[in-house]
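Researcher: Good morning. I'm working through a list of sequences from a screen, and I'd like to move beyond sequence-only analysis. For each chain I'm collecting a predicted structure so we can compare shapes side by side. This is the next one on the list. No need for commentary yet; just the structure.
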Amino acid sequence: MNEFLNIKEKDGSGTNIFEPLYIFYSKAFRYFNEKVFENILPNIGFLLKPKASRANRLAYFRSNFFKIKNGSYPVICLIIDFVSDVDVKKTLSSLIHEMIHFEASIKSIKDCSKSQFHNINFKNLAENRGYIIEEKDKRIGWSYGKPNEKLNSIFDDFLKINPFPYQEFNIPIVEKEKKERTVFNYFCPECGVVVKGKRNLNLICGECQVDFEFAEPKEKTIEKIIENLI
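Model: Good morning. Structure tokens for this chain:
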């Protein structure tokens, strides 16, 4: 951890341990606004939050999220689970991605649907900022991109003067304990009807008057899950 955190942890002042992250990404936003977006992006709010159980996005943008007095402000939210000292540029790329949504918002350009499908407008805006999108995803459209040589060089320049504030920063993955299965399927070999029950039951189909057979549970492999999703 950096010197700031070591000092604060020693004196027990109850500091927000993520404060250096907020400072780091706030500086990144201002730097990229100047170097990449010609300072066209106005004020914004930053949030860090854990990912939802099934969501895998690294960040997201919301317009008119905060209302303070008579004004409203957008927000860029970075998912803390994907923030790491190992691949800082990946998070910086995510920040650029959301800043492109911000640009579309202030220019009243429809770049994304409610289902998160990124259309050709997003692709055009992105590539104008050095964020290259080579393939169209079936589910979310022109979304996945990577920095070109010029944008990657801007990342390098930023990190030289603003090093990532942590060493060995990661969010530990806590695996949930698997519950032992207690309900199983039994099927009639004649009519195919399926019933559920505990293991080692002796059941007879009332329609066919034959014994139900035990259906061995199939183990779900990651390959099978992906195959079913396609």
